[in-house]
Amino acid sequence: MGAYILRRLLLMIPTLFGIMAVSFTVIQFAPGGPVEQVIARITGQGDATDRISGGGADSGNQDFDAGGEFSSKYRGAQGLDPEFIKQLEVQFGFDKPPLERFFKMLWDYARFDFGESFFRDISVLDLILEKMPVSVSLGLWITLISYLISIPLGIRKAVKDGSTFDIWTSGIVIIGYAIPGFLFAILLMVLFAGGSFYDWFPLRGLVSDNWHELSWPERILDYFWHLTLPLTAMVLSAFATNTLLTKNSFLDEIRKQYVITARAKGLTERQVLYGHVFRNAMLIIIAGFPAAFISAFFTGSLLIENIFSLDGLGLLGFRSVLDRDYPVVFANLYIFSLIGLFVSLISDLVYTWIDPRIDFERRDV
């Protein structure tokens, strides 16, 4: 197992390099970079993204016309002091070649030095840590609730396979899986958050403005009051996936020979189900817990945080992309990719811990 872990850890290096290289390359062709954003704000043009003629985020090279006069590839920069444009490039690091900037970024990230945000007076790491509690809160609750719903429901569906209960619940599960979470979130807002019908739940934030003035019981109620709609929207697809996974896992175990033997010995269905089947069928469910949490933490909350204005990592990443705050964008990508790779390794190790019969040493990575 030690050799397998070492191989997986070494494999993370080229994987991270590839992710960052592709992302960095794509960014070079994206219009409306940080320099353009500053120019657009200075000249009162608003968002620079739709006004850049070409060159992407690294389109900050100046040219001189035939008469030696300064001309800029930044649209909207005409009339601005050329020295000021150069200072902007130095400030954002665009005075260096792309390749030099890329390898400097990798070297800094390898030491977990993510620098400062372009447009916020705070370090990138502090900014991420500041927003993380909201996303962690959503990830923990969505994972816990989805497992509490899906495991009992999946077991019941496996036991009642082919019954009316199984058919009707399968229809509900399939519909829940088919409905996009963000679309269901918008529907919940319209129905219950002051839209066209009821105004029962808050529209934004994780707690009320006067949360610190409330007593502890009131704070807990206020917290869950704000979480109700976001969690409902996120649970829909998560519980559907886990329910079908649980059912299929139990069905696969129920049909095995050891179950028939247990029944032949006179054990009750409950003893067979929870004394033998449950332990084996839950292997894949338990082992998938880390990946399920990371999925809810990093991907599932992205649109939900934006829809409900929850100030977490999803909203931070979205706004950073719009603002072209590259240090925040790349730091989020690096950290999330690194955590995702480690979680994938942890999931494999959990498999071997739960079921010693699994031996990754005999497999090629």
TrEMBL record:
- Database matches in Pfam families: BPD_transp_1 (PF00528)
The biological processes this protein is annotated with in GO are: microcin transport; transmembrane transport
Where in or outside the cell it occurs: the entry states: Cell inner membrane; Cell membrane
Q: Which GO terms describe its cellular component?
A: plasma membrane
Keywords recorded for this protein, A-Z: Cell inner membrane, Cell membrane, Membrane, Transmembrane, Transmembrane helix, Transport
Q: Where are the transmembrane segments?
A: 9-30, 134-155, 167-193, 223-245, 283-308, 328-354
Is Nucleotide-binding tagged as a keyword?
Answer: no
Residue ranges of domain ABC transmembrane type-1 in the record: 132-347
Which superkingdom heads the taxonomic lineage of this protein's source?
Bacteria
Question: Cross-referenced PANTHER family, in alphabetical order?
Answer: INNER MEMBRANE ABC TRANSPORTER, INNER MEMBRANE ABC TRANSPORTER PERMEASE PROTEIN YEJB
Q: Which family does it belong to?
A: Belongs to the binding-protein-dependent transport system permease family.
Task: List the protein's name.
Answer: Microcin C ABC transporter permease YejB
